[in-house]
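Sync notes, pocket subgroup
Present: LS, DG
LS reminded everyone that the earlier model was apo-only. Rerun requested with pyridoxal-5'-phosphate included. Inputs:
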Amino acid sequence: MIKENIQRIKGEISNSARKSGRNPEDIRLVAVSKRFPATKILEAIQAKHLLFGENYIQEVKEKRPLIPAPARFHFIGHLQTNKAKIAAESCDMIETVDRFKLANALNKHLQKIDKKLEILVQVNIGRDPGKSGIPPENTEDLILQLQQLKNIEICGLMTIPPFESDPEASRYHFRKMRELLEELIAKGLFQERKQPELSMGMSNDYQIAIEEGATIVRVGTAIFGNRPAL
Ligand SMILES: *Cc1c(COP(=O)(O)O)cnc(C)c1O
């Protein structure tokens, strides 16, 4: 099942990319394995998929040692500053940096272990009070501050728009994110990157996110099925 799902979604990603005149290779699929056991991740690896997303640091800590090295983990959950050490050690990208204090804590641990870590800045594009992320108008200032931290590499932006049962309704937020990124690029904030990342889109709306410029989509349910309850 997992293998077929991954193949189907990769096909859909290519279709959406072509439909919007983009190169399918510019879009990466993060298979969101949160709450699923390591055995499911291994099944996906057998289907030649190597990029995974996790929301809970405790789960990363438990599963990571069970997964062979070529697999990579993006952290996509809310990260508490007191968990920065584990995150810095065990993740390949933190997609949810939304404050200087957290980035500074990550940077300190990274310096100690002499590691450079990719991050994305999480933007609360829908100004949803229940969601993490920095308000769009403060994104530039935060990135300018983060640029002082030598062990983190700012690769782009990430967002979780407000939930909409009709995926078409998310298009507005995805477009706003692309416009924000373009504005920051025009201001010279991502000079060292050829194509800054835009992580947006989940199981029910990743195709629309791709049409609006996503370079990373995070898909859980459509690959692994409904998540077991906590
Ligand atoms: C759980 C989660 C996803 C995946 O959601 P699905 O609807 O299962 O595809 C993507 N992004 C984030 C930040 C998540 O927490």
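DG: The mean pLDDT is 97.
LS: The pocket of pyridoxal-5'-phosphate is lined by residues 32, 34, 55, 76, 160, 202-203, 218-222 (CB under 6 Å).
Action: DG to write up.
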